[in-house]
């Protein structure tokens, strides 16, 4: 039975690597929230979009059963879900890559140990919380190893004698180093993605999803974006454009009563430092102004 719910629900990791950035992305997309007493439900105050704070591994399940329409989760979690889902079930789909929470799923072994290449794992035991992805990679690479499935603290398995190697997420590498382990090979590169429930949506909710996606993309592209404004001799335009870290062709405006001059507005990404401005000035630009971009909508 499905309960009619007209508000959109987004599942977000409640604690861990993606938690804080996921929420701040939603806030930058213009959503504001009021937290429930237990702080696990955030009620959307200005749009009919609520947030459910959950364990990241639960997000694919929530999307599949339709309890949430969207989720922010690591691509690794989605990929694992796809490989271990029962045949015939629709898996959640990736809607947008979010550009944060970068990490890799890697095979790792004990420092100073005998294993130096993945082929040596043949016949050995590998501990992981990602049995689907690991089995897939082992099959493709023709390595027969025993997979020891653990739900957490995978990195201590070799020390406990439970496994000869591990297959776990690595971000900074600090966890591996703290456990005297090092990477052999990365089997999957991952980042946070916006995932969508496989269930079809009514038109009102579908519209909310489109709107949220457009806003998230806008928030992402305004990151580090600068608007450069200047005036210059028309003849210098090509040289000036070549110097700019522009994202798209600049707007060029004529100036009243100054037929040989133009005003230029250019959306730039990356640094626009003093050196840049001085170089532009040398080409004849004047009245240079750099503004931070607060919001963008394509
Ligand atoms: C991963 C992984 C390691 C840690 C690696 O856990 O299991 O414990 O991050 O990060 P590092 O290389 O920066 O030290 P995660 O935060 O995804 O939590 P979970 O696996 O318990 O969901
Ligand atoms: Zn997790």
From TrEMBL:
InterPro entries: ATP-PRT_HisG_long (IPR020621), ATP_PRibTrfase_cat (IPR013820), ATP_PRibTrfase_CS (IPR018198), ATP_PRibTrfase_HisG (IPR001348), HisG_C (IPR013115), N-reg_PII-like_a/b (IPR011322), N-reg_PII/ATP_PRibTrfase_C (IPR015867). Signal peptide: none annotated. GO terms for molecular function: ATP binding; ATP phosphoribosyltransferase activity; magnesium ion binding. Its main location: cytoplasm. Pathway: Amino-acid biosynthesis; L-histidine biosynthesis; L-histidine from 5-phospho-alpha-D-ribose 1-diphosphate: step 1/9. Residues 226-294 form the Histidine biosynthesis HisG C-terminal domain. One of its GO terms (cellular component) is cytoplasm. Residues 55-218 form the ATP phosphoribosyltransferase catalytic domain. It is an enzyme of class 2 (transferase). It is found in: Cytoplasm. Catalyzes the condensation of ATP and 5-phosphoribose 1-diphosphate to form N'-(5'-phosphoribosyl)-ATP (PR-ATP). Has a crucial role in the pathway because the rate of histidine biosynthesis seems to be controlled primarily by regulation of HisG enzymatic activity. This is ATP phosphoribosyltransferase. It comes from Dokdonella koreensis DS-123.
């Amino acid at each position: 039975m499905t309960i009619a719910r007209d508000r959109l629900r987004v599942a977000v990791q409640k604690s861990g690597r993606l938690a804080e950035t996921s929420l701040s992305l939603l806030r930058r997309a213009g959503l504001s929230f009021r937290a429930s007493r237990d702080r696990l439900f955030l009620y959307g105050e200005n749009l009919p979009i609520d947030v459910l704070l959950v364990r990241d591994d639960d997000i694919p399940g929530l999307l599949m059963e339709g309890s949430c329409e969207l989720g922010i989760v690591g691509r690794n979690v989605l990929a694992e879900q796809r490989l271990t889902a029962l045949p015939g079930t629709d898996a959640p789909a990736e809607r947008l890559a979010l550009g944060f929470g970068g990490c890799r799923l890697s095979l790792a072994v004990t420092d100073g140990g005998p294993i130096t290449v993945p082929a040596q794992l043949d016949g050995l035991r590998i501990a992981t919380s990602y049995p689907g992805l690991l089995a897939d990679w082992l099959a493709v690479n023709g390595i027969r190893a025993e997979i020891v499935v653990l739900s957490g603290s995978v990195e201590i398995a070799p020390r406990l004698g439970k496994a000869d190697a591990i297959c776990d997420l690595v971000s900074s590498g600090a966890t591996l180093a703290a456990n005297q382990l090092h990477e052999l090979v990365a089997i999957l590169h991952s980042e946070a993605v916006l995932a969508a429930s496989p269930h079809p949506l009514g038109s009102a909710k579908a519209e909310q999803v489109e709107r949220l996606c457009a806003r998230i993309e806008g928030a992402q592209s305004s990151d580090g974006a600068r608007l450069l404004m200047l005036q210059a001799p028309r003849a210098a335009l090509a040289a000036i454009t070549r110097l700019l870290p522009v994202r798209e062709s600049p707007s060029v405006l004529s100036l009243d009563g100054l037929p040989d001059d133009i005003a230029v507005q250019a959306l730039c990404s990356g640094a626009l430092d003093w050196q840049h401005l001085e170089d532009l000035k040398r080409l004849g630009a004047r009245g240079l102004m750099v503004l931070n971009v607060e919001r963008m909508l394509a």
